[in-house]
TrEMBL record:
Keywords: ATP-binding, DNA-binding, Nucleotide-binding, Transcription, Transcription regulation. Residues 12-241 form the Sigma-54 factor interaction domain. Residues 314-334, 349-394 are annotated as: Disordered. Residues 357-380 have a biased composition (Basic and acidic residues). GO terms for biological process: regulation of DNA-templated transcription. SUPFAM superfamilies: Homeodomain-like, P-loop containing nucleoside triphosphate hydrolases. InterPro entries: AAA+_ATPase, AAA_lid_NorR, Homeodomain-like_sf, HTH_Fis, P-loop_NTPase, Sigma_54_int, Sigma_54_int_dom_ATP-bd_1, Sigma_54_int_dom_ATP-bd_2. This is Sigma54 specific transcriptional regulator, Fis family. PANTHER family: SIGMA L-DEPENDENT TRANSCRIPTIONAL REGULATOR YQIR-RELATED, TRANSCRIPTIONAL REGULATORY PROTEIN. GO terms for molecular function: ATP binding; sequence-specific DNA binding.
């Protein structure tokens, strides 16, 4: 069976080199009983490839049993996999077969095998080595003829080093490893997959077939697709059911893509649930806290480099005409809030302005009624002695060093906060917050 016939038979869409390599490796291992480990992120289609391997194998007329190891409670997984005798545990009112007995003569697909408890891993290793197992509550061995395909979205080698997965089992199930790449690494498959799911959803739900214009295609290609093919299918089904326009534009798609809605990097927190909270709201709050934590680490690292002499002093900063080397902050490149690829400009894609403030920063005038004269004199003294602190008169405190470095960088760039933030190696948002703190302290 050639590659095109395999794709048509099992519904594998795509012509990228990566997906062709996956199909070729699946075709080579299918005719044997060798154990296969499918590795890839959640939603890339590991179950579909497992179906294809079974369907091309000599066992294709036997059962194909799917077991999600992460969905079975730890106390029940052994009885679910290997069966149990009557009275083996509370509630076992009769003898029951396990998945390995049901899959005899066919294939068993162990999805999320990295979630399997260690006790069950010992039993699984015995099945792989001897082809025998015992039901829970019994000592009589039972023979089984099963081909095992396992799948995981975890780094099992790392789990072995951490002691969460048995090393001997890892080597036994990873005889052949097939890596299924995420959707963002095979972008030429995005549009064909989307149109395939769109056409199938239109047939299923009896809706008119939609067409994507060029702006919608470009948005789909730029999007990061953290949920991979599963998320792509979800968006296509929403387009087929929720949108009434014949031609779909980028503006129509934006509300359906996570992290793009309303031109923001985060979806707005809703008030859908006032009793117990919405899980999505908890996730968003967690992300915001993580982002603040990254900013704090960023400031601490900057001040540590300043004190230890690893960072340039204000007089060594590049002149305003020079283009400082730009190192994106962790909150831009490592957090999952922005789901676009890194080579897409942040403002251009999201049309997002962090705050509505002028591009150049000036300290707030001290015309408040409660501001005292000696506070103003203290401010002048601090600014005039800033260079002295760095020239060795005395070691500045962390707060003084931070304030002095920010003020001097802004002076160097004529108040341009973006250039100052880049030269300091921090994000603009962090600089906005620190400036506000300086204004409130003055």
């Amino acid at each position: 069976m050639d590659r095109e016939a395999i794709q048509q038979r099992f519904g594998i869409v795509g012509q990228s080199a990566a997906i062709r390599n996956v199909i070729d490796r699946a075709r080579m291992v299918a005719r044997t009983d060798i154990t296969v480990l499918l590795q890839g992120e959640s939603g890339v289609g590991k179950e579909l490839i497992a179906h294809a391997i079974h369907g091309m194998s000599p066992r294709r007329h036997g059962p194909f049993v799917i077991v999600n190891c992460g969905a079975i409670p730890e106390g029940l997984i052994e009885s679910e996999l290997f069966g149990a005798e009557k009275g083996a545990y509370t509630g076992a009112v009769e003898r029951r077969k396990g998945y390995f007995e049901e899959a005899d003569g066919g294939t068993i697909f162990l999805d999320e095998i990295g979630e399997m408890p260690l006790a069950a891993q010992v039993r699984l290793l015995r099945v792989l080595e001897t082809g025998e197992f015992t039901r829970v509550g019994s000592s009589r061995p039972i023979k089984t003829d099963v081909r095992i395909i396992a799948a995981t979205n975890k780094d099992l080698a790392k789990a072995v080093r951490a002691g969460h997965f048995r090393e001997d089992l890892y080597y036994r199930i990873s005889t052949v490893i097939i890596e299924i790449p995420p959707l963002r690494e095979r972008r030429e498959d995005i549009i064909p997959l989307f149109e395939y799911f769109l056409h199938r959803a239109a047939q299923r739900y009896g809706t008119p077939l939609r067409r994507l214009d060029e702006s919608a295609r470009q948005l789909l290609l730029r999007y990061h697709w953290p949920g991979n093919v599963r998320e792509l299918r979800n968006v296509a089904e929403q387009v087929a059911v929720l949108l009434t326009k014949t031609t779909i534009t980028a503006e129509d798609l934006r509300p359906l893509l996570r992290g793009v809605s309303a031109g923001r990097s985060l979806m707005p927190v809703s008030r859908a649930s006032e009793h117990g909270g919405d899980p999505r709201e908890r996730e968003l709050i967690y992300r915001l806290l993580l982002e603040l934590r990254l900013d704090m680490h960023e400031i601490k690292a900057l001040l540590h480099r300043l004190v230890s002499g690893q960072v340039r002093r204000p007089e060594q900063l590049p002149a305003p005409s020079e283009e400082p080397a730009f190192r994106p902050s962790p909150s831009w490149t490592e957090a999952e809030d922005v789901d676009f690829v890194e080579d897409v400009p942040f403002e251009e894609e999201l049309d997002f302005e962090p705050v509505e403030t002028p591009d150049r920063w000036e300290p707030e005038p001290e015309n408040r009624a409660e501001a005292s004269t000696d506070r103003s004199e203290q401010k002048t003294a601090e600014q005039s002695s800033a260079s002295g602190l760095l020239n060795g008169e005395r070691l500045p405190t962390l707060a003084e060093a931070e304030r002095m470095l920010i003020v001097e960088a802004l002076k160097r760039y004529g108040g341009n906060r973006r250039q100052a933030a880049r030269a300091l190696g921090i994000s603009e948002r962090t600089l906005y917050r620190k400036l506000k703190e300086i204004d409130e302290a003055l």
